[in-house]
């Protein structure tokens, strides 16, 4: 019986990830999987209302852009959120960074890893 619950949960998680990857959350995905850590650190800086962490994120973003590791749409999304926070609009920036997090879609690799559990 317990195995059936685990299997059902795995099916639900895989279906949710597939749906999430197809549907998104109302805005295009603007961050590459390699830059997801920047979203997390930006969200932390904004939720903590920490100007130094915000500046650290801004510098890290600029360094990755200079190295060619940030697409233009991705860069603009980050800059827009950072600008809100630097203007003291922390709550608006927090709402935008949350939307940005939610707009990320599972990569093919992530979906494949989740669906592997279905085969077990």
Main attributes of the structure:
120 residues, mainly alpha, 76% helix, globular
Distance between the termini: 16 Å
What are the secondary-structure elements, in order, as H or E?
Answer: HHHHHH
Portion in helices: over 70%
Computed structural class: mainly alpha
Q: Report the radius of gyration as a whole number of Å.
A: 17 Å
Number of domains: 2
State the oligomer: single chain
Low-confidence stretches: 5-11, 13-17, 19-28
Shape: globular
Biggest sheet features: none
Mean pLDDT: 78
User: What portion of the residues fall into strands of 2 or more residues?
Assistant: under 5%
SS element count, helices: 6
Strand elements, count: 0
Q: Care to give the gist of this entry?
A:
The protein is mainly alpha-helical. It has two domains: about 1-25 and about 105-120, no CATH class; about 25-105, no CATH class.
Structure description:
This protein has 120 residues and is mainly alpha-helical. The protein folds into 2 domains: 1-24 and 105-120, no CATH class; 27-104, no CATH class. Helix content is 76%, strand content 0%. It is built from 6 helices and no strands. The protein has helices at residues 2-23, 36-47, 51-66, 72-86, 90-103, 108-119. Helix 1 (2-23) packs antiparallel against helix 6 and helix 2 packs antiparallel against helix 3 (51-66).
């Amino acid at each position: 019986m317990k195995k059936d619950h685990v299997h059902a949960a795995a099916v639900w998680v895989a279906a949710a990830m597939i749906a999430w990857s197809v549907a998104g959350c109302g805005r295009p995905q603007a961050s590459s999987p390699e830059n997801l850590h920047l979203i997390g650190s930006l969200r932390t800086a904004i939720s903590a209302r920490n100007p130094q962490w915000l500046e650290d994120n801004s510098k890290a973003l600029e360094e990755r852009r200079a190295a060619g590791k940030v697409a233009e749409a991705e860069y603009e999304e980050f800059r827009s959120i950072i600008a809100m926070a630097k203007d003291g609009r922390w709550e608006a920036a927090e709402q935008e960074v949350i939307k940005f997090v939610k707009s990320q879609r599972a990569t093919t690799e992530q979906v494949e890893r989740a669906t592997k559990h279905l085969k077990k």
